[in-house]
Write a structure and sequence with these properties.
mainly alpha; disordered N terminus; elongated; 119 residues; Rossmann fold
Length: 119
């Protein structure tokens, strides 16, 4: 997958930049460069982890993919889930249907908070 960067000017005059790309494509490095120049960053990977851990998404993931996605302590084993969803498009779509609505809501909240704060 090729790394892409999208930009959009919001109504508040804030430049909104979305950095996307595959695993190990340099997204974090690009974001750190923006951050060093004063940009505010929403770490979507961290949000995704928090959603699974805090927003009650784990039970839905277990219902969808089975207990095989859990480690010995009953926590999500991301590598196991990754092997499932990245080897089967249907499974990836199921994961996205579970996580993406909450993730988009949290991203929108973060953007609104930055705009309200004048960033």
């Amino acid at each position: 997958m090729r790394e892409r960067t999208g930009t959009k000017h919001t109504n508040a005059g804030v430049l909104l930049v979305a950095v996307t790309g595959g695993i190990a494509s340099g997204k974090s490095s690009v974001c750190r460069m923006f951050e060093r120049r004063g940009a505010k960053i929403i770490d979507v990977d961290a949000l995704g982890r928090a959603i699974i851990e805090e927003a009650g998404v784990l039970p839905e993931l277990v219902r969808t993919f089975g207990k095989r996605i859990l480690d010995d302590e009953g926590m999500l084993d991301r590598k196991r889930l990754g092997r499932i969803v990245f080897s089967d498009e249907s499974s990836l779509q199921k994961l996205n249907r579970i996580v993406h609505p909450i993730l988009v809501e949290e991203i929108s909240r973060g953007i609104a908070g930055f705009i309200q704060a004048g960033f």
